[in-house]
Amino acid sequence: MAVGNVLGFATGSFSGWYKIFSFTVTSACDADCANLKSAFFLDIFFITVTTYASVSAAQELPLSEMQSASAEEGIGQSNSQEAFMWELFGTFRYFSRTVWIILLVTALTWMGWFPFLLFDTDWMGREIYGGKPNELGWQNYNIGVRMGALGLMLQSVVLGVTSVLMEKLCSKWGAGFVWGISNVVMVMSFLAMLIVTYVNKVDFISGGFPREGIVVAALVIFSILGIPLAITYSVPYALVSTHIESLGLGQGLSMGVLNLAIVIPQVIVSLGSGPWDQLFGGGNSPAFAVAAVASFAAGIIAILAIPRSNAPKPRAII
């Protein structure tokens, strides 16, 4: 994921695709439009290649052949039915207190992440570079968006480095504690974004570009957020799998339940962040303030409520 994100965000930060794919420039599509169109062509190519690889690599049997094989072996059809929604929700009553805490921390953590994931490049173009899309100042906005893509690329580099160190961090301090500390880092980063936004509004010269120190500070914040993002991508899944394993419910079910704790906050943020920002006069700062509060709550709960369990030391092979 880190390597793919680096390449993808590097694609978004590069402004010369229209020169490479010159056919994308038309009378109805200027350089910015052509850059976006070129990125879509690259998307289509890589999605096609990866789809073909995933479909052709897995040697799977059609469902009809699996059912025929089960019938020949004497396995009843009733035992091979797929689980449905009521069976998924019916497993909730078997969850322990720790599993519910993990789901709660996951929901709060993603309630902190989604405002950033939705508005990160918009924040750079609107709040840092002072531009507006499709209005006067759109050039500043486009430059800011590309600079935001550069920040996301740096974030992905930090994400990859953190992923390599993940096992050692969790073994030393415990997965729950590491997760909680990562949420504290999120809080500090979101608060730093609010501070940078305020300072930039005070110093920004209308029609110009932000000070170099402001841009560097924004890129540093983007990069630091790669640390908690790497932890968010891995630790919750490991924790919920570990605590559900003893219940015998299956790893696939545990992933489905955890994804519910991610999707529900996403719907809430997607529907509420726009009206919430408009309530306070526009801009992205109100959504980032909510993200900081949610991340702080998630961090405190993770540190205090999730049991500290270090990874067992490997036994020597004799």
UniProtKB/TrEMBL annotation:
* Family of the protein in this entry: Belongs to the glycoside-pentoside-hexuronide (GPH) cation symporter transporter (TC 2.A.2.4) family.
User: Where does this protein come from, organism-wise?
Assistant: Trapa incisa
Q: Per its UniProt record, what Gene3D superfamilies does this chain match?
A: MFS general substrate transporter like domains
Q: PANTHER family under this entry?
A: SUCROSE TRANSPORT PROTEIN SUC4, SUGAR TRANSPORTER
Its taxonomic path starts at: Eukaryota, Viridiplantae, Streptophyta, Embryophyta, Tracheophyta
Q: Which SUPFAM superfamilies match?
A: MFS general substrate transporter
Keywords, alphabetical? Membrane, Sugar transport, Symport, Transmembrane, Transmembrane helix, Transport
A GO cellular component annotation in the UniProt record:
vacuole
Q: What is the membrane topology listed in the Swiss-Prot or TrEMBL record? A: Multi-pass membrane protein
Source superkingdom: Eukaryota
Q: Name one GO molecular function term.
A: sucrose:proton symporter activity
Q: In which pathway does it act?
A: Glycan biosynthesis; sucrose metabolism
- The protein's name in its UniProt record: Sucrose transporter 4
Which parts pass through the membrane? 99-119, 143-165, 177-199, 214-235, 247-268, 288-306
- Where in the cell? Membrane
